[in-house]
Amino acid sequence: MSNTPPYAPDAPALSLKLDDQLCFALYSATNALKKMYRPMLDRLGLTYPQYLVMMVLWERDGMTVSEIGEKLFLDSATLTPLLKRLEAQGILERKRAAEDERVVRVSLTAKGKALKDDAASVPGEAVTATGCTPDELTALRDALKRLRTDLMKTG
Amino acid sequence: MSNTPPYAPDAPALSLKLDDQLCFALYSATNALKKMYRPMLDRLGLTYPQYLVMMVLWERDGMTVSEIGEKLFLDSATLTPLLKRLEAQGILERKRAAEDERVVRVSLTAKGKALKDDAASVPGEAVTATGCTPDELTALRDALKRLRTDLMKTG
DNA sequence: TGAAATTAAATCGTGCGCGATTAAATAGGG
DNA sequence: CCCTATTTAATCGCGCACGATTTAATTTCA
């Protein structure tokens, strides 16, 4: 009686068409987002993930690698090389904590702190590029946060 | 009189806090999405971008590299190595068109076509993982498509 | 206290994305 | 017809993401 196909007894038989997929809309919007940010961040000498790390550190300096990772949902395999590149640019310093040598604490240099002023115009420019109203942006952001939480639940 | 700060005369002074950012919600949701898909796609022997290419070819076989690129908003620098890996797996074939030797046409093998049946349950499982209703998914998808279009406009 | 378990970061390998360049084929204009 | 411009794919280099493993430091608890 059910029209559920044999290959997926518990899931609805949904489309395999590209343009129907939420996942592709998400994926392609993120790719577009990164491209949109590039010229702005090039002026700061940052990549997009580096910009995210800087936002975390501008909020609270001296975080450990794992603390940064918890904020960004990234692990040390991604962060360690990224942080080393920022260190090589003189934007931050990595130092093992004296009280626990397993931990690496990351602190901004003067140059890294100063970069915050240069970045201040970035969010506004980005909002303009989205062509959305502030209310739309807020709604979309919160919907994506909920989606992220749900996606990480099962995984 | 204006409270617009001196560093961004034409843009609103928006937050640099991570959790306020639409961009981070988008970025982190996409990372979570890819992780969620991995175990499902591992069974098919595909990565997530490879799965997208397959969806394009299941809809219309024999597309050129640029046509696939237009659908996915990717260029040959990304697609050529990806397609070579799928070719090495015997999932598709790449052949220069006789009528125009610049063009490479991509066609599915029997194995590639058969993979569509194995993939049929993927969208349903993915929907379940999102924890969203179909209406929410449709609304979010369409909002992201609009966002993507806007982001690609200026860039 | 000393062996085992846990934790933190680093390392390794693979596969994207993409800016930039290159190579080759075709189209178009004089 | 040739020379230039355009188009298509491939190539190169770099920086992520991340699964998996490794190394080293700390904690646990028998």
Automatic annotation (TrEMBL), chains A, B:
It comes from the Bacteria. GO terms for cellular component: cytoplasm. It is found in: Cytoplasm. Its main location: cytoplasm. Keywords: Cytoplasm, DNA-binding, Transcription, Transcription regulation. The keyword Cell membrane does not apply. The keyword Ubl conjugation does not apply. Residues 19-149 form the HTH marR-type domain. GO terms for molecular function: DNA binding; DNA-binding transcription factor activity. One of its GO terms (biological process) is response to stress. Coiled coil: none annotated. This is DNA-binding transcriptional regulator, MarR family. It comes from Kordiimonas lacus.
